[in-house]
Design a protein that fits this description.
- This protein has 69 residues and is of the alpha+beta class.
- Helices cover 33% and strands 19% of the residues.
- It has a two-stranded antiparallel ribbon.
Length: 69
């Protein structure tokens, strides 16, 4: 997580802003990691699900030879 900040308006107009060690900062934004999966992850997950589905439902029961026609 990160943030974007800037010098406060009070400090930015002060003539001593370059020398002062007590500058005030204002938070502009916070960067929060995405909580939703990106499109590539969704596509991979769908591909994995499809492969599992294909493996489960493509199973066929072999015919047993009984010797009689």
């Amino acid at each position: 997580m990160g943030s974007l900040s800037r010098m406060s308006e009070v400090c930015s107009i002060c003539p001593q802003k370059d020398k002062c060690s007590k500058k005030r900062m204002e938070a502009c934004a916070y960067l929060v990691p995405a909580s939703e999966p990106i499109a590539a992850e969704i596509e991979i997950n769908n591909e994995i699900k499809q492969n599992i589905y294909d493996q489960i439902y493509s199973f066929s029961v072999p015919r047993v030879y009984t010797g009689k026609f």
